[in-house]
Structures are given as structure tokens and as C-alpha cells.
């Protein structure tokens, strides 16, 4: 079986660099850069062709960081292409997230629809009318307005425990009524 000359050259440079040969490592990185540029350029759309050099640098950094994971008994170019492929996939995933408008800039673009809020408030009021007025107000203050049970109880001159019991019973009655339970 004949071995590819590029594989032999790159593999020997990689093995020498793993053994501490700094000159071989510099040569390896330079040659990998020349090998990876066309690899990425062929895979990128013309709109993203300028990203080829970034992908080359990211791949070279990944090879540097993970060079000790290379299995000396395996072909080097297969390992190299796996690393390059992963960097390319990462790039594609990053690019699939399209530009967005910052939230603070969305006011001129998107009008706020208050109709859903108004309908929800009306529906909530209709539902709360089915329980006693004090219980309804306690539920509204604690579950909608965010008041504490102590604050809601104080507004009605009740103890906190009595307010908790009233809220619990009111919610239970609402759940039974609107969940199809006994009326």
C-alpha cells in the first residue's frame, strides 16, 4: 500500500514536534496553514469566504491545544481533518444565528399588543367573581400584584394564617370549578 506523500510529510513533522523539535513544529504549522486555507475556502459560501483565515487560525489553535491527543499509530491527516471539520461545523452553527435587534431597539419595529393583556385581565376578573369578594381580593393581591400574604392580610384586618387559609380555599374552589370538578 502506497502512502500519500503529504500524509508522510505532515505525519513526520507532527511526530518530530511531539518529540520536542521546535523547528519541525513551526514547519508543521506553516504547512497546515497552506493546507487548511483551500480546505475552508472550498466549503464556505462566497459571502463567508473572508472567514477562511479565521477558521485556519481556530484550527491551528485547536491542533496546538489538542496535539497530545494525536495517536502516533494513526494517520495524521485523518486527525487533522477531523479537527478542521469540527471547527467548520462550529462556524456554521455560529453563522446560523442571525443578526438580531437589541431589545431596547425593538419599539419602533414591534407595536405592543395590549388586547391580549386586556382579555386576560377580563377573564381573570370573571373567574375571581366566582369566589367571595375578600377571598378574590386576597388572591389578586398575592398572586397577581405580588404582595406578601402579610400585606394582603393587613389590608383586610386579618391574621396572616386566616389569609393563607382563605387564599388556599379560594384557589381550591376555583380549581374544582374550572377543572371540571364538582361544583
Automatic annotation (TrEMBL):
Organism: Devosia neptuniae
Domain called RNA polymerase sigma factor 70 region 4 type: residue spans: 124-174
Family according to the record: Belongs to the sigma-70 factor family. ECF subfamily.
Parts of the chain that traverse the membrane: none
Keywords: DNA-binding, Sigma factor, Transcription, Transcription regulation
Keyword Transcription on entry: yes
Protein name (record): Sigma-70 family RNA polymerase sigma factor
Positions of the RNA polymerase sigma-70 region domain: 42-96
UniProt xrefs under InterPro entries: RNA_pol_sigma-70-like, RNA_pol_sigma-70_dom, RNA_pol_sigma70_r2, RNA_pol_sigma70_r4_t2, RNA_pol_sigma_r2, RNA_pol_sigma_r3/r4-like, WH-like_DNA-bd_sf
Superkingdom classification of source: Bacteria
Amino acid at each position: 500500500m502506497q502512502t500519500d506523500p503529504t500524509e508522510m510529510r505532515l505525519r513526520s513533522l507532527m511526530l518530530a514536534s511531539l518529540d520536542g523539535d521546535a523547528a519541525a513544529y513551526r514547519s508543521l504549522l506553516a504547512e497546515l496553514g497552506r493546507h487548511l486555507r483551500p480546505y475552508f475556502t472550498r466549503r464556505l459560501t462566497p459571502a463567508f469566504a473572508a472567514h477562511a483565515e479565521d477558521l485556519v487560525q481556530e484550527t491551528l489553535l485547536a491542533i496546538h491545544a489538542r496535539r497530545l491527543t494525536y495517536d502516533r499509530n494513526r494517520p495524521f491527516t485523518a486527525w487533522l481533518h477531523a479537527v478542521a471539520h469540527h471547527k467548520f461545523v462550529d462556524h456554521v452553527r455560529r453563522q446560523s444565528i442571525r443578526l438580531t435587534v437589541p431589545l431596547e431597539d425593538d419599539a419602533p419595529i414591534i407595536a405592543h399588543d395590549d388586547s391580549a393583556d386586556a382579555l386576560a385581565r377580563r377573564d381573570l376578573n370573571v373567574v375571581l367573581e366566582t369566589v367571595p369578594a375578600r377571598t378574590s381580593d386576597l388572591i389578586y393581591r398575592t398572586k397577581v400584584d405580588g404582595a406578601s400574604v402579610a400585606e394582603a392580610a393587613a389590608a383586610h384586618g386579618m391574621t396572616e394564617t386566616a389569609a393563607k387559609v382563605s387564599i388556599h380555599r379560594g384557589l381550591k374552589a376555583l380549581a374544582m370549578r374550572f377543572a371540571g370538578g364538582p361544583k
